[in-house]
Amino acid sequence: MKLIKPIELFQKLKASPGHLLGLDVGTKYVGFSVSDDDNKIALPKSVLVRKKSNIDLMAKDFQLLVAKYSLVGFVVGHPFSIEGQANVEAVQVRLFIENLRRTGKLDGIDYTYWNENYSSQCVEALLESVNLHPVTYKTILDKFAAVGILQGYLDDMNRKLKSKDASEE
């Protein structure tokens, strides 16, 4: 796994057809979403249970997802701090990605970090009036937070591509 800039990942995606995987890394679950065929819409998929002892199993699951969805790379939600200070959640996300990288099972996959601030709060606001079992609530929250992360990335990158194309005319 190799960290690259957000625009580099999008350029790679445009150069070779495929999809992106959006990740919302939590302490208990990792929610994920996948981009559609046009890489304009993030689609909710599922969650994986996260434990320190199952990183190899998770890496294998991600290998299957890479093959199944023709993934070009991962867009990993990262809680950026306005003050520039690292917070506990940011450290946890980076440790998770580093542990995945160390397995060697995802070599050749690029990833980038994307600001996930308020992604969970937006989903919580949408789910506020829905009466769900706590486990169901949490898995839906993580899955749709991953949608918010990937959708924000796709919107921003497509907007930049469109404005670049318009300026070249």
TrEMBL record:
Is Iron one of the keywords UniProt gives this record? Answer: no
Quote the InterPro entries the UniProt record gives.
RNaseH-like_sf, YqgF, YqgF/RNaseH-like_dom, YqgF/RNaseH-like_dom_sf
- Is Transport there in the keyword field? no
Q: Which CDD domains match?
A: YqgF (cd16964)
Alphabetically ordered keywords of this record:
Cytoplasm, Hydrolase, Nuclease, Ribosome biogenesis
Q: Hey, what's the signal peptide range on this chain?
A: none
Q: Which GO terms describe its biological process?
A: rRNA 5'-end processing
Residue ranges annotated for the YqgF/RNase H-like domain, each copy included: 18-123
- Name of protein: Pre-16S rRNA nuclease isoform X3
Species source reads Iris pallida
